[in-house]
Amino acid sequence: MSLSVSNIGLVLEGGGMRGIFTVGVLDYLMDQEIWFPYVIGVSAGASNGISYVSRQRGRSYFSNIELQKKHNYIGWKNWIRGRGYIDLDFLFYEYPDKYYPFDYDSYANYPGRFVMVTSNCLTGQAEYFEEKHNFRRLLEACKASCSLPVMCPLSYVDGIPMVDGGVCDPVPLFHAIEEGFMRNVVILTRNKGYRKPEKDFHLPSFIYRQYPAIRERLRLRYRAYNQMMDEIDRTEERGEILAIRPINPVEVGRTERNTTKLQALYDEGYACGAQILTYLTGKASGGFTR
Fold first, then answer.
1. What is the DSSP letter of 74?
2. How far apart are CA 241 and CA 210, in angstroms?
3. What share of the chain is helix, strand, coil (3-state, %, to 5)?
4. 227-257 burial code (b ≥16 CB/10 A, e <16)
């Protein structure tokens, strides 16, 4: 079966290693040859979405599970080397060339759009990047989207300091709508009903002291996330989106290294992916073209 979706967007939440759930969903989509015309990802959603757009089934699974076993790119040893708790330089500049080559040609020839979300440290606003020609800039934008505050060094795109896109736009559904995609499939990495604890996040004064706008966004990050989850629940109830999320509370942490837990969450994501096929075939009157 091959479905080319004509007017539905695909929105990918982040969540660090919890994104292995999204990997399972995306592998199911690729197995079914289901391709969306518009894909937008934030943080881990961007790094996993890029392999969907390059049509490399299994590439994100390899980096999240197999590569972690071999190279242990998460941990304090990376911090000591000056690369942060998660070695993003390894993931974005070594892995695509040495360990599992990224198919730049397939990515560039994908007939749809792929958007990556970052957070601009200077303005405290979300930035949205598309890049199909300058592949170094593509990797820089994707890396910036995944740069967890404090745990990773600042990333730069076009010379501008950036951190994880989830700080300013935790689930970029509204941007997809602004781009003209009124119906969307939204892949989340937390179970329904999850909300962040309602507590301000206060950074030590010396961290990002030259970037007050991003410090303020980090302080109130929980509010933006919880408000977005409330809006997703409302749009889901109105039938405007299909939300795919883990069924049970997720036991995988943002920097999880337990591959047994990661495998289980991947398997759950793959199984949940079948909901998308049911949704699309039910929208045959206008949802997609065969």
1. B
2. 39
3. 45, 15, 40
4. ebbeebeebeeeeebbbbbbeeebebebebe
The pLDDT of residue 152:
92
pLDDT digits (tens, 9 = 90+) for 200-228: 988 898 899 999 999 999 999 999 999 99
Residue 27 to residues 34, 60, 272, Cα–Cα distance (Å): 10, 9, 11
* Phi, psi dihedral angles at 67 (to 5 degrees): -65, -35
CA distance 73 to 51: 19
Query: Helix, strand or coil for residue 260?
Result: helix
Question: What is the Cα–Cα distance from 159 to 248, expressed in whole angstroms?
Answer: 41
Contacts of 96 (CB under 8 A, 6+ apart): 102, 139
Q: For residue 42, report the phi and psi dihedrals to the nearest 5 degrees.
A: -125, 135
CA angle 266, 114, 57 (to 5 degrees): 35
| pTM of the predicted model as reported, rounded to 2 decimal places | 0.94
Exposed/middle/buried for residue 54 (C-beta within 10 Å: 0-12, 13-18, 19+): buried
Helix (H, G, I), strand (E, B) or coil at 47: helix
Is there a contact between 250 and 237 (Cβ–Cβ < 8 Å)? no
Chain segment 46-82, per-residue pLDDT in tens? 999 999 999 999 999 999 998 877 777 888 777 777 7
**Residue 285 above 50 pLDDT?**
no
Gap between the Cα atoms of 102 and 251, Å rounded:
30
- Report helix, strand or coil for 289: strand
